[in-house]
């Protein structure tokens, strides 16, 4: 099917079922692992299961409900659309399918994207529960040719050769930090570079050392494809990483050295090992602050 035809089918499906006051949302919020509770803040909400929306895929990742929710958010009752769960390349979906909701958001009138994720901390300062405001990214799959803009360019959305030096809007980041100060949030909030890897495996020790060496502060399996399509569509982006686990950098224990030292037993290598359960637990623990920040941020958008 022609991409523009698919977009029109999906858009029409939603508009036929949305009340007028929610049919032109201003903000798209994409909820990462464990952060789906952001949608609970919406009032007058209308929800669609991904499985029922033409062109959408089912979400099979724990912590991702798989619903598109429209509603009002904040003191100004700003109309927003909220993805409770996202699609990932590692699930077998194409980049076109993964980013289709962002294209639909643009066609509905969205001007701002707030994208959240759960990420592993590569920066030695970062601890689980900290928040990182994304100021730049490294697109590892994209550098190797797996890019969401690969193929014929959709000229009606944006240019063939898209600059990304301004991917994460400075004014939006400044506004977010002002709100942190106004609300008296005491949780550590940093700015840093997010590295996108395809997953679904968590990174090895050597990979963590490499990513830290090339300038990444946090690493995860999402976000960048959505950001690229948003910027291609002229949508301004605020990206937020919730640090849910700390990367392991030390080299694996040496079996050779253990034998030399007279040790003839299995050495535990699980200390610090990442798990999805840990990711969800830490995301849930920090969700209250993040929900408060996003609600006030949306209320203060011009």
TrEMBL record:
It is an enzyme of class 2 (transferase). It comes from Pichia kluyveri. One of its GO terms (biological process) is nucleoside metabolic process. GO terms for cellular component: cytoplasm. A purine D-ribonucleoside binds at residues 203, 245. This is Purine nucleoside phosphorylase. It catalyses: a purine D-ribonucleoside + phosphate = a purine nucleobase + alpha-D-ribose 1-phosphate. InterPro entries: Nucleoside_phosphorylase_d, Nucleoside_phosphorylase_sf, Pur_Nuc_Pase_Ino/Guo-sp, Purine_phosphorylase.
């Amino acid at each position: 099917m022609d991409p523009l035809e698919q977009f029109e089918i999906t858009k029409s499906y939603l508009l036929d079922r949305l009340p007028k006051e929610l049919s032109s949302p201003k903000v798209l919020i994409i909820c990462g692992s464990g952060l789906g509770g952001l949608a609970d803040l919406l009032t007058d909400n209308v929800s669609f299961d991904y499985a029922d929306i033409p062109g959408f895929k089912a979400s099979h990742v724990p912590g991702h409900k798989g619903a598109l929710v429209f509603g009002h958010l904040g003191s100004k009752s700003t109309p927003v659309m909220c993805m409770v769960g996202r699609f990932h390349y590692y699930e077998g979906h194409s980049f076109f399918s993964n980013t289709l909701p962002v294209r639909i958001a643009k066609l509905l009138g969205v001007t701002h994207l707030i994208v959240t994720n759960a990420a592993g901390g590569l920066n030695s300062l970062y601890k689980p529960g900290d928040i990182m405001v994304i100021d730049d990214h490294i697109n590892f799959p994209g550098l190797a040719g797996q890019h969401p803009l690969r193929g014929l360019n959709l000229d009606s959305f944006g240019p063939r050769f898209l600059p990304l030096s301004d991917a994460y809007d400075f004014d939006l980041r400044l506004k977010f930090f002002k709100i942190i100060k106004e609300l008296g949030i005491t949780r550590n909030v940093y700015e840093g570079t997010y590295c996108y890897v395809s997953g679904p495996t968590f990174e090895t020790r050597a990979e963590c050392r490499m990513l830290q060496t090339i300038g990444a502060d946090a690493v995860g399996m999402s976000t960048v494809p959505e950001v690229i399509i948003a910027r291609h569509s002229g949508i301004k982006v605020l990206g937020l990483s919730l640090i849910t686990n700390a990367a392991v950098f030390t080299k694996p224990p040496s079996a050779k050295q253990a034998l030399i030292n007279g040790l003839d037993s299995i050495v535990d290598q699980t200390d610090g090992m990442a798990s999805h359960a840990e990711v969800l637990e830490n995301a849930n623990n920090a969700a209250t602050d993040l929900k408060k920040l996003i609600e006030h941020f949306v209320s203060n958008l011009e």
